[in-house]
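Why does residue order matter? Because the sequence determines the fold. Keep that principle in mind as you read this record.
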Amino acid sequence: MTRLGLFLATCGYVGYVPIAPGTAGSAVGVALFYALRSTHVSWAEHLAIPVVFAAGVWASNVAEAHWRRTDPGPVVIDEVLGMLITLWLLPVTGLGAFLGFLVFRLLDVIKPWPAARFEALHGGLGVMADDAMAGVYGHLVMRGLLAVAPAGWLA
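Structure:
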């Protein structure tokens, strides 16, 4: 089960990239978003968020036990979750998704309140919760941008 947990936590070992693994994990999140969106089944986006969250909590617990440290760098499933939340059900174009990617990365780095406090939660829950909160903030920012953007620019 450790191998499966590490595979999930690192998103198929994407988390092992030597430069900016969190950014690489966020890119996986955008790819998963587009894969879900291409199904044209809205409930797929609804279902993906709790499934990725639950799998991420479990896999992050496995990864923390394996590496014997809190929130190990190769764990990037939390960035996937954050991207899914940021883009959840938004009518975005490729440019809009890229902007969502940038917005989420910025919020994930600065961790506005209470995201930084969520990071202190125990185990995999803390690993996932701070990025989920950054994703919620990212989603709200994207909704605001979509409301003021010229028609067709982001959506």
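The two ends are 41 Å apart (CA to CA).
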